[in-house]
Amino acid sequence: MSEERLRIAIQKSGRLAEESVELLKNCGLTISRGRDTLYGRVQEMPIDVLLVRDDDIPAFVADGACDIGVVGENVAEEDRLAGARETPAELVARLGFSRCRLMLAAPKEWAWNGPASLEGKRIATSYPGLTRRFLAAAKVKATPVMMKGSVEVAPRLKIADAVCDIVSTGATLDANGLRPVATVFESEAVLIRNPASFGPAKQTIFEAFMKRVEGVMASREAKYVMMNAPRSAVPAITEVLPGAEAPTVLELAGGGDRVAIHAVCRESVFWTTLEKLKRLGASAILVLPIEKMMA
Ligand code: ATP
Ligand code: MG
């Protein structure tokens, strides 16, 4: 009997690809790719990796060709809104990378008076579902015009009046005489799964994998903070440490009223945090990265 393996779809190349592989790497998973450029095999867990175009990932996952996938939430949500599938892929986790915005952009010469300015206009976009939802919420009647790529040239070509597209720096829009006017959707990479239940073997692999993903996500911001401080300052210091549970308080050799305080902070530790600690009497403050974490 062949061993059951969990199949994950990731983008082959593009803005999601590198960090998707990095996520697997941080989960302790290395992908070995043979001559086959479509398939990779994970060594450390029974997982196969399918390397594909990002547009195909929601369909592959919804149909069960793959069990899970990493894709932009913009693409996953657009697929869901298109309603082409009885049961679309389910969102399991937000992954915190490939952040971007889907934005409406209008010709610079327009006097923008909010979404009402779009009444009766045509809007070129690769995201007609998300665009329609935004327009409906704003109670504006406008027509999305589907374009697969080079959306920003549509107004110049008189194919549309405005556009709704992914914006990072806005330079492409600017070069085409457009300016961003409203945010339609804020996106980041997400993990999606097939909505049908997995068999017990696959479910076990999935749960083990998710534990690692959660660990990677948790440890990304988390820091191990150490310092020496007066014993009397321990309660005030605990208040200041971001997202920390009860810290460990240790005796320092030689006694005295100073102790060592160690804590895991689950949220970002900023310079301002260190300055506050200093004011509370802390010294020798160290902030260390945490490589792995499991609750
Ligand atoms: P493919 O060849 O796989 O179809 P693509 O050209 O459609 O790739 P990419 O440009 O690689 O797609 O973008 C993939 C995803 O990355 C987008 O759907 C979005 O979620 C995210 N993304 C897009 N633009 C940016 C950006 N400027 N910065 C960060 N992330 C982005
Ligand atoms: Mg694509």
TrEMBL record:
Pathway(s) this gene product operates in, as recorded in its UniProt entry: Amino-acid biosynthesis; L-histidine biosynthesis; L-histidine from 5-phospho-alpha-D-ribose 1-diphosphate: step 1/9
Purpose of the protein: Catalyzes the condensation of ATP and 5-phosphoribose 1-diphosphate to form N'-(5'-phosphoribosyl)-ATP (PR-ATP). Has a crucial role in the pathway because the rate of histidine biosynthesis seems to be controlled primarily by regulation of HisG enzymatic activity.
GO molecular function terms attached to this record: ATP binding; ATP phosphoribosyltransferase activity; magnesium ion binding
UniProt protein name: ATP phosphoribosyltransferase
Enzyme Commission identifier(s): 2.4.2.17
Stored Pfam families: HisG, HisG_C
Cellular compartment(s): Cytoplasm
Domain ATP phosphoribosyltransferase catalytic: 53-214
